[in-house]
Design a protein that fits this description.
The complex is a heterodimer of chains A (249) and B (766). Helix content of chain A is 34%, strand content 28%. Chain A has 249 residues and is α/β, with parallel strands linked by helices. Classes of the chains: A alpha/beta (249), B alpha+beta (766).
Amino acid sequence: MTGDGERLVLRAAGLTKGFAGDGVAVTAVRGADLALKHGEFVAITGPSGAGKSTLLHMLGGLERPTSGEIWLNGQRVDQLSQARWAVLRRRHIGFVFQFFNLVSNMTVADNVELAAIMGGASRKQAQARREELLGELGLAAKAHAAPARLSGGEQQRVALARAMANRPLLLLADEPTGNLDSGASRVVLGLLNRVHADGQSILLVTHDLRVASAADRVISLFDGMVVDDAPMTTSPHPTSLPDVLKLRG
Amino acid sequence: MHAMLRWIRADLRASSARAIVVAAMAAGVVTALLLSAGLLQGATNPWQGLFTATKGAQIWLHLAPGTSVRSLRSQVGGIEAIAGPYSATAATVATGGQRTRVELRAMVPQLPAIGRPLVESGRWLATGSLTGVVLEDTFAQAIHAGVSSVLELDNVDETASVRVRVVGIAQTADQGFYPDQTPGLIWVLPGLLRQIEPNAGHTEEVVGLRIASPAATGLVVQQVVTQLGSSAVGSVSTWQQVKESMARRDPLLGLLLALFGLMALGAALLAIVNVTSGRVLLQTADLGMLKTLGFTPVQVMTMLCAEHALLAGCGIAAGLIAARLLMPLLLGGVPGVGAAAATVPAGWAAVIVCGTFAAVLLATAAPAWQAGRVRPVAAVRAILPRGHLSRLASIAMAARTPPALVLGARSAFVRRLPAALTIGGLALPMMMITIGLGFWSTLDDVQRHPADIGLAAQVTVSPGPLTAAETLRLIRGDPQVLKTYTCVQAEALVPGETITITTLGMGTSRQPYPFHVVQGHLYRAPEQAVATAALLSTLGLKVGQFVRMWFGGVPVTFRIVGRIIDPQYGGQVLAYGRDTLTDEGAATPIGFYSLILRPGVSPAAAVARLTRASQRRLSVAEVPDPADQLGIVRDAVAVLIAVLAVIGLTSLVTTSLLGYRDQLRDVSVLRAMGLTPVQVRAVLMTRTTVLALIAVVIGTIAGRLVTIDLISAVSRLYGLGSGIGSTPSAGTLTATVALAVGVAAVAGILPFRLPGRLPAVTVLGP
């Protein structure tokens, strides 16, 4: 049980992550709390080294938190084994990374279909889903190309299609535009907005304030701690970062 | 499951070359091991192959004439088919002045369904030629007879004598090899048998029984003897006796190939571990991404194991097919083995197939487990090796050693496990290649100087119907003949040992046959003898000791004065001057003449000339050259060297790709530091070259160290004793080492030629 009355897709409480490297202990995330409602688009922002990516990785089960709780769709998941996390990811989570990370030995179509099949689709359903997604993203003609043959923007669109292939509860995006030029960034951001409009819950990590301004709510991280968590408003008196972003945007 | 299959398919498609190499390694190993198993089987247990090829009978009975066997099948359970009855009689054949006892067996021109003799050369009996006979293979070899030889057959009373011509030589599983099993077997037409032995009372009926359960042989024999009456049964021989008597043949080739096969397996396993762990490192980002997508650690591990199992399966299937195709091609001509004998029992094949499969899986398991443990976050964080510049490297740099050399040599050992696997994966093939070259050079020596292995004479002559004086006149009249030695072959009984051995009186004490003596000296006086290592070991003797033997009731005491090498007579040779027997009063019928030809004369030409000169009355034969028989070793060794070279190359390419991946990030830094593109390439070349050089030197030294011992061990098994082995020449070894290191250098810069095919590059980021 969540212990929460609201319909939350994700909730984290007191998340901490420490690393011990070369005898020096480093705490990347310190007691972060956050919540994400169904259909909400939240951006986590902060300077380099603030612990944004580590927080996102913990929320997607790629890193195990040192302490704290994670609840996904009402189920506590922070203590799950690697294998249980894997099952959770294949069914309910989609990931987009800065460097695209398409599986290099598979074609574009295979990359997308693999995620759909992992999510439980049959081969036919996976193929239909791939055609639908690549069609929507304007990549139908590149279905059988190797990822290395695509431009950065195209690769990131494929990564987005792959992340959406299993119709995830939650889309986690780690600096999705960080490695793209401004044109490609706009396209990717437009796509994220489109899937959000369709009701997709999105948690996005970025240090680019323009990208963060597309979200419903912005969480600011500094030295591993949440220093601000406020919705984007149209208030004429900016009191939080989102208000500032709105004014600047 | 679908997802795993999808990934495996994509991976195989994306890296088909690597997949083919892994499958080819499994195929090569299985082929080598199956061929060696075939040879070992053919060499150590030829009975099984012969039995299958001749559709043999497990029980052979010699029955009194007129015994009816028609009712046997209905009265004794378990008999599947009956061969015969064939009329048979004892007779003698005159060869080289000696009368040898034989069994004549009457058979018709149509070969029977059960127990059909396997014609090796010439043809089977034919209606048109009554005096045409077929000799059992080992008996024919023992009496130096071949197709178209003429023999004198007498019945036991010596009242009838017929001159016959050998029309064919055949193998059989009915009885053991001559002279372990006597009498020798000659197949004749029924008409000829009646001509030689008109008295039906002197004949027997020979019957073969093929039974359903070989394990029940004893029981069936008991029932048959009870049924027919013990007075009607002259003798019984069973498949176990025949198998036992055949089971002492030279396993040289089999052992050699088995050694190569096992070493190839070892090298292949190292290469597979190297390739698989290399790709885990190369594909860390991909594997991490798969885990991010939801693959569990067990699924990743299963996927890699399943992929390799599939490749191993394909390779093994290809290996089975290749072995099946190569078996008759490679082994068909090997004396004492033959295509028929070289069959691999299903049990051995199963062990080879399952063993190779299990070994490949085992080699994959550790890296696959490592792959399963790759953290999903590896998808976004490249894992690079750590290391520091050693003191030696710093000194080298300070001493103005080219930086490319220092950096390349250092980077070779940054990842220690792959470096060790590469060195092992190269050193093993190199060691076997050195050993292979050693065998090659030994064979060259043997062929160039046959006298070194005791084969001074290239041609032997049996007098046949001619007298000794006529024979000698014909031989001495031939200008191609340099020297002639008159030789006798005499059976001797060794008291206390209860065995009979074949001894040779070769030349005289004053003019001894030029054996190759490896210890002591040749016989120079009567009662001195030399012997091979194998015979000395059989009799428990040493050079310098005395041995007493009985020649037809006459005792003769020899002092063993030397150890010789002689591959003939299964390596069991005791030789002395012919005059020893004459002095002691033992009968000395002339056996044959050994001829040494003038240099440059081909033995085949000499045989043809003497046969023509004697109007085919002399039986002239070339001394079989064991090096010729071992020519097959060259082909086999060449094939195996190719397999080993591919395995070694695979290890190198893996190392090279891994180095390129590791250093991709460093390359721009190195350039920024002032290294030219050529120097950057030199860094990568040095990396593989250093590893290759270490491996090649270790492999070559190890190979050289064991070559002589190995060849000696093998030649002792072959009855030659030690002392014939030679190592490859320094020039050959230097060329091989240079070639290996050159290939390694080229492999080092191979990744530059394949930029588009490198995985996991993008993950490193800008």
